[in-house]
Amino acid sequence: MKVAIAGGTGFIGKHLTQYFLDKKTTVLLISRQKHKSEHPLIRNITWEELEKSIKPLEGVDAIVNLAGETINQRWTPKAKERILQSRLDSVERVRSIIERMENKPVLINASAVGIYGSSESASFTEDSDLNVNDFLSNVADKWEAAAELIPDIRVVLLRIGVVLAKDGGAFPKMSLPFKFGLGGRIGSGKQLLSWIHIRDLVRLIEFCIEKEDIEGPVNATAPQPVTNDEFGRQLAKFMNKPYGFPLPSFVLKLMFGEMSMLLLEGQRVIPDVAINQGFQFHFPVLEMALKDLLDPEIKAVK
């Protein structure tokens, strides 16, 4: 198999690249600037080079588009514009490339569970109505709509939840207060957290590439979401730390402004497509994921 990854130098992209390399899969990393790699299975190409010639993508089975400005920044008007436009621009570049390819690859286009809006009671599957009523849901909705306009190819819209990994994403920041014995619920603690272990995420991407009948939205989340309070209690238990230092909502809103909704709001998302298609999660419940992520630290504190 031969896979092209846009945004391959980011957190998820690095894990996905390594996963494919471990399986002896050729990886083409598409980015704005040229990066050097001595690995024989990696080829680095720029968007500018692909505008001139798509020859480097000959024989590619899939394009995975993860490119986009990080949402982990204060949402000023200019930042909001960059966050949205960077995603739309990446899809437009991918469309331009695919339209010139004779043998069309499948497109795995990243999206987010934020497209469902926020709820403390409703459950959302891929068939659920969307609740586009805030900045994040609007970005995800426009991102998906742009990808769906690419003609004559199979498009998978990967609605990614909170990705748990030791070396990046949200987990190191979420676990940091607990290391100092300062862990507690955030806000009410009732907001739902639809999460996925990084290894299940990269496996699910490969699964979607290989399963030719998978098309459209796919929820990239573990089967059992938890509330923020449940997450915190399990994390404190695994780290052998106290749990009782709540972080009030108003503090987060003062610190982060509108971006605080990432921590104060959530949704219960169920991966119906993955389950019905036979995908086997290695980390279906939070306890298994935390044990994997924290096992060396658990041994260290006991």
UniProtKB/TrEMBL annotation:
Which SUPFAM superfamilies would you find in this protein's record? NAD(P)-binding Rossmann-fold domains
Domain DUF1731 span(s) in chain numbering: 247-293
Domain named NAD-dependent epimerase/dehydratase: which ranges?
Answer: 4-212
Which segments cross the bilayer?
Answer: none
Q: Spell out the InterPro entries in the cross-references.
A: DUF1731, Epimerase_deHydtase, NAD(P)-bd_dom_sf, SDR39U1
Q: Which residues form the signal peptide?
A: none
Q: Which NCBIfam families match?
A: yfcH
Q: Which family does it belong to?
A: Belongs to the NAD(P)-dependent epimerase/dehydratase family. SDR39U1 subfamily.
Name of the protein in its database record: NAD-dependent epimerase
